[in-house]
Design a protein that fits this description.
Layout lengths: L19 H18 L15 H4 L3 E6 L15 H15 L3 E4 L8 H10 L3 H18 L15 H15 L1 E4 L4 E4 H10 L15 H9 L4 E11 L4 E3 L18 E10 L5 H6 L8 H11 L1 E11 L2 E7 L10 E4 L6 H4 L10 H4 L5 H13 L3 H4 L9 E8 L6 E6 L11 E4 L5 H10 L46 H15 L2 E7 L4 E2 L12 E3 L5 E3 L37 H4 E4 L8 E5 L13 H6 L10 H8 L12 E4 L6 H15 L12 E3 L3 E7 L5 E2 L5 E3 L2 E4 L2 E8 L11 H7 L2 H10 L7 E2 L6 H12 L18 H19 L3 H18 L5 H11 L4 H10 L16 H4 L4 E7 L2 E8 L5 H10 L1 H7 L4 E7 L3 E6 L1
Helix pairs in contact: 1-27, 4-5, 21-22, 22-23, 24-25, 24-26, 26-27
């Protein structure tokens, strides 16, 4: 602690001065009081958390922070920014008559704890629970008003029992396209059994074997297992999500190569909800930037499905430009496309161009070599616009349906299996990537959309493709269809009608959104409540067997392999516990006890955060996911919130797509199945900015301790050597982290809260400056002095009425702070509190009790500990937490007078102090009678008087 720190420099002559030591004592005492009193307990309308009916009868507010992950590094001052903001807002809502639910749990499954277990042998639960306890201590120190009865961690078996239960609801559901909702799989089975719905191939449901029935249902289930292309990392021994792979195709953790591989994985059919996920964004109160990111991720596009016949079968493509079909001169399949091997011949067809073969003797060799090359690249790398286009001819030709032309079929890495059908018709004249590929492989380039830039239709003279949605179609006439002379819109309609009439395609809608890969080859995650019988058929565990808890294993790490060996297969940690994997169970399905093998993958870390808002509502319910009455009360639809959801959800913009999209999907499935009344999890979303800090690096580029850097003459020095300075993230690895513990020790939690809220608008990133924290500490000292004598500790307020200037200052502050807190403009609210406090300080003399009490209540949401202490010193026995927030008297909010400018010939000649409510007629009389105006007119005739009450009079002379 610095000896010169104002917070530490308590003077002997002022024993009752507000210091760091006093702040620490006050804050610890009130935190203990809140816990013992249950101050922040939010009552439910029913159940074990039911409480005061009068409080339940008030309007409700459900305020949430995004789930924190309990890191071993603990918190730095950037982490609590959102938590403090929601706490301030929640406190304000309580004081304005709301029943407020505000709590915090912990998202505790995930890779960091598992990696720590691999390195140290410490069970992930041990390290995770220790991290949670440390984080709870740090958060409690900040005075956050959480209902602690409702807190939990995703690793609690009582919690992940219901995560597993929700998985089973999704597994046992299908999406009915006609009803536009999920329905129980039993209803689909009934349709098959009755013959209402036919089985492909013409066989009846009763003729199918159990395995065949399971395969049919797998085509419909919202949770299903399939051979899916995945990011396989042999060096880590696990499959990775896209977000865990860097742009250069390596693992974010460990920097190992990542390959594309096909593995049996669980998936969630989120694509079934693409339209609803898109449409319902319109009703949410979210930042437009986040909505745009979700819309782009879902990626709805209208176009046509087109079938290209090949060897008695067909390759299906999706295109948004069916009007350019006559310009398709080749096709490209994704290297992983399942039809590649089927259509690849033993030898090269006669006349194959050398540039098409990649120098390989046979098509099979060329395809195998190219697939291996493509598997080592990330999706980002494969689609990079600037890279050279690569590919290889598979040795087969397909037929363009509009003109019968034989077009060569290639594989190329710029086509992804995850988008559309994994196949494209290439129209190089009017697509930039296709143009570059065609030039590289000497393929025909045809103009079918007439250029409007004067280049003409001879593509041999073109340097780039011509892309336009506002031009005429040319060179597009066949035997029974012609598009020549049509605009793009008309041409699309005509060719789509022709495709449907001829059975070679149809108009359709496509989405960029892919089904959610839901498997991880890891230990520290929720086990799947799925077992497999001897025929490999998946069976759901009955609810009575939940939770299925994680077993003990000797080795937490997935088996790792040669990082460069893409042909290996994962071996999961769970698979090594044979006693857990191989079990005899009676599933209650009438089959009696049978031998089963458990699923040995675990759920991804996203699973627990897909529904945690519901557990906050009814955290101890062991019989139901959530009591329907409680869910309707806190999250049900209401005016302005047609889909229901949390009233305010605060967190970082980095979760714009994945977490928010996954949570919305789970919410909609639960809504469809009747388990909840809210079709959306989060009605209002607010993204807080980031607290940044300077990162200092030496000549080697190594970060040096920021606290030990000296600034002089505009440069930065560490141990006498000049270092670079760049504003960036705060973190332990960057050696620039400042912990909340440090600031609380030096100044107190209330000072930290005020500083973080005063740094700037909440949604804007801002740089941390420890030296500036003292400004908010001094504000609290002045507030204390306005109520308490620093020498005697006596309360100094007086029971007299304040003067009019003070009343105006008070009510303007009340009006402004109330509006700012409602709008989450915490920085300007603090500025208004400061202005009022300064007014009282400058006025001198004792402060009126009514003003002091109002000021304490204004401060209460922002600095709750000192507010509670001063409230008690002012003679109140109750807490400020549920006190009414002050209401401004409108008579004192309006300025007593405003300044009116009087102009003659455009020049200011007088300034008048007038009432804000003065009429135009009265203002004109006052202006014309003013001595300065009379003198300036000097008898000149007045042609016109323009009045804009109460601030302007403009006199035009003759």
């Amino acid at each position: 602690m610095s000896e010169t720190n104002p917070a530490a420099a308590a003077e002997v002559a002022a024993p009752h001065r507000y210091t760091a030591a006093m702040a620490a004592e006050i804050e610890a005492r009130w935190q203990d009081f809140w816990d013992a009193d249950g101050t922040y307990a939010a009552p439910n309308p029913s159940g074990d958390l039911a409480g005061d009916p009068a409080l339940v009868a008030k309007p409700k507010k459900f305020i949430m922070d995004m789930f924190p992950y309990p890191s071993g590094a603990g918190l730095h001052v950037g982490h609590p920014l959102g938590y403090i903001a929601t706490d301030v807002f929640a406190r304000f809502q309580r004081m304005t008559g709301h029943n407020v639910l505000h709590t915090l749990g912990f998202d505790a499954f995930g890779l960091p704890a598992e990696q720590y277990a691999v390195q140290t042998g410490t069970h992930p639960r041990v390290s995770t629970e220790a991290n949670i306890e440390n984080m709870k201590i740090q958060l409690r120190q900040l005075g956050l008003g959480h209902d602690k009865r409702r807190s939990f961690a995703t690793i609690d078996p009582d919690y992940y029992k219901w995560t597993q239960w929700i998985f089973l609801q999704i597994f046992n559901s299908w999406y009915d396209d006609e009803a536009k909702k999920a329905r129980p799989i039993s209803e689909l089975i009934a349709q098959f059994e009755s013959g209402e719905r036919g089985v492909s191939g013409g066989r009846s449901w009763n003729e199918l074997t159990a395995a065949e029935r399971a395969d049919v249902l797998g085509e419909y289930r919202l949770a299903y297992a399939s051979d899916a292309p995945v990011n396989w990392c042999p060096g880590l021994g696990t499959v990775l999500a896209n977000e865990e792979v860097t742009a250069d195709g390596r693992s974010e953790r460990g920097n190992f190569p990542v390959f594309k591989a096909k593995l049996r994985q669980w998936n969630m059919r989120i694509t079934a909800y693409a339209d609803r996920l898109l449409d319902d964004l319109d009703e949410l109160d979210w930042p437009e930037a986040i909505k745009l990111q979700q819309r782009n991720w879902i990626g709805r596009s209208e176009g046509a499905r087109v079938d290209f016949p090949i060897d008695g079968e067909r390759i299906t493509v999706f295109t948004t430009r069916p009007d350019t079909l006559f310009g398709a001169s080749y096709m490209v399949l994704a290297p992983e496309h399942p039809l590649v091997e089927k259509f690849t011949p033993q030898e090269w067809p006669e006349g194959t161009h050398d540039v098409w073969t990649g120098g390989h003797a046979t098509p099979a060799e060329a395809v195998a070599a190219y697939r291996a090359q493509a598997a080592s690249k990330s999706d980002v790398e494969r689609q990079a616009e600037a890279k050279d286009k690569t590919g290889v001819f598979i040795g087969a030709y397909a037929t363009n349906p509009v003109n019968g032309e034989q077009v060569p079929v290639f594989i190329a890495d710029y086509v992804l299996m995850g988008y559309g059908t994994g196949a494209i018709m290439a129209v190089p004249g009017h697509d930039s990537r296709d143009f570059e590929f065609a030039r590289a492989f000497e393929l025909p380039i045809r103009c079918v959309v007439e250029p409007t830039d004067g280049r003409g239709t001879d593509t041999a003279t073109w340097d780039e493709a011509f892309v336009s949605y506002d031009a005429r179609i040319v060179n597009s006439a066949g035997a029974d269809v012609s598009l020549d002379g049509l605009g793009v819109v008309e041409a699309k309609a005509r060719i789509t009608e022709w495709l449907e009439r001829t059975g070679t395609g149809e108009g359709t809608v496509n989405f960029r959104l892919r089904d959610w890969l839901f498997s991880r080859q890891r230990y520290w995650g929720e086990p799947f409540p799925i077992v497999y019988d001897e025929d490999g058929i998946a069976h759901a565990l009955p609810e009575s067997m939940l939770p299925l808890e994680l077993p003990e294993v000797e080795d937490y790490s997935p088996r790792t392999f040669d990082p460069d060996d893409a042909d290996t297969q994962p071996e999961t940690p769970l698979s090594r516990n044979e006693d857990w994997v191989n079990v005899t169970l009676d599933l209650g399905d009438g089959a009696g006890p049978r031998n089963y093998r458990r699923e040995t993958n675990t759920m991804p870390n996203w699973a627990g955060s897909c529904w945690y808002e519901l557990r906050y509502l009814d955290p101890h319910n062991s019989e139901k996911l959530v009591d329907p009455e409680i869910e309707r009360y806190w999250m049900g639809p209401r005016e302005g919130q047609p889909h229901g959801g949390v009233d305010l959800y605060v967190g970082g913009a980095e979760h714009a797509v994945l977490h928010l999209l996954y949570a919305r999907f789970w919410s909609k499935v639960l809504f469809d199945l009747g388990h909840v009344s809210s079709a959306e999890p989060f009605h209002k979303l607010f993204n807080q900015g980031m607290i940044q800090a300077y990162v200092y690096r030496d000549a080697r580029g190594i970060a040096v301790p920021a606290a030990e850097v000296e600034e002089r003459d505009g440069s930065s020095y560490y141990e006498g050597e000049k270092v670079s300075r760049l504003l960036g993230k705060m973190g332990k690895s960057l050696k620039n982290a400042v912990t909340p513990d440090e600031i609380c020790a030096e100044y107190g939690a209330d000072t930290l809260r005020l500083y973080e809220m005063a740094m700037g608008p909440l949604d804007v990133s801002r740089p941390w400056d420890t030296r500036a924290v003292v400004g908010q500490f001094r504000l609290l000292q002045r507030l204390w002095r306005n109520v308490v004598d620093e020498d005697s500790g006596a309360v100094t307020v007086v029971d007299t009425e304040p003067d009019e200037d003070t009343l105006r200052a008070l009510h303007k502050a009340i009006d402004g702070v109330r509006g700012d807190l409602e709008g989450m403009r915490f920085n300007t609210a603090i500025a208004k509190v400061t202005e009022l406090n300064n007014h009282l300080t400058k006025a001198g003399g004792p402060v009126s009790r009514s003003v002091a009490e109002a000021l304490v209540l204004l401060v209460a949401p922002l600095a709750p500990h000192i507010a509670e202490e001063l409230w008690r010193k002012l003679g109140h026995e109750d807490s400020v937490v549920h006190r009414d927030f002050p209401v401004a008297d409108p008579a004192y909010v309006v300025d007593e007078t405003v300044t009116c400018v009087v102009q003659i010939k455009g020049k200011v000649k007088a300034r008048l102090e007038v009432a804000p409510s003065i009429s135009e007629e009265e203002l004109e009389k006052v202006a014309l009678a003013d001595d300065k105006v009379v003198a300036a007119l000097d008898g000149a005739g007045i042609r016109k008087v323009i009045v804009r009450a109460p601030k302007l009079v403009n006199i035009v002379t003759a």
